[in-house]
Amino acid sequence: MTLYNEERKRRYIDKKESEVILAPNFLQNLFKKTAPFEEKYGKDLCEWTTNEIIEFYQYSDVYSLSYMQLINSNYALYTTWCIAETLVPDGQNHFLEMTPDTLASCVNNLLLGKLILSYEDLQLYVDKLDNFTDRFLYYAIFSGIVGTGYI
């Protein structure tokens, strides 16, 4: 999949990767996710309104508020760069308008709930393991053997 405004995004990616260490293809993957919506809206993500951002986030099906904040932060940094390059017609960074409550409302809590394993589900799967050491490890981790900071 190609990026919307690919040349612009490549310039930004090259600049960021020369300044900071990022995971391979991190920014490119973030921009690939927005491309269908950029096509739909007929404009670069740096030009999106608050409502368009929220629609994209709700469609993204993210189940982690931390990840939602991470992507919002990166899109805000990109938009700030676009503003400095005079590429944003209204000169506003609407990603900075996203409050923690707004981002939290875009998180898919139903999916998050399915990721949480109950003790009964743990028993159902772990008790099928042949190796008792493996069983012990799963129960120990579930019970918090490494401390409360990992629960």
Key features?
8 helices, 151 residues, 62% helix, mainly alpha
3D structure, described in words:
It is a single chain. With 151 residues, the chain is mainly α. Helix content is 62%, strand content 0%. It has 8 helices and no strands. It has helices at residues 6-19, 26-41, 50-60, 65-84, 100-105, 109-115, 119-126, 132-143. It starts with 5 loop residues before the first helix and ends in an 8-residue tail after the last helix. The model has no long low-confidence stretch (mean pLDDT 90).
Any idea what the shape is? elongated
Number of DSSP strand runs: 0
- Computed structural class: mainly alpha
Order of helices and strands: HHHHHHHH
What's the N-to-C terminus distance?
Answer: 39 Å
- Overall mean confidence score, pLDDT: 90
Rg over CA atoms = 20 Å
Uncertain spans: none
Number of helices: 8
User: Biggest sheet, in brief?
Assistant: none
What proportion of the residues form beta strands (DSSP E)?
A: under 5%
Q: What's this, in brief?
A:
Helix content is 62%, strand content 0%. It is elongated, with a radius of gyration of 20 Å. With 151 residues, the protein is mainly α.
Draw up the topology in text:
Elements (H helix, E strand, L loop, with lengths): L5 H14 L6 H16 L8 H11 L4 H20 L15 H6 L3 H7 L3 H8 L5 H12 L8
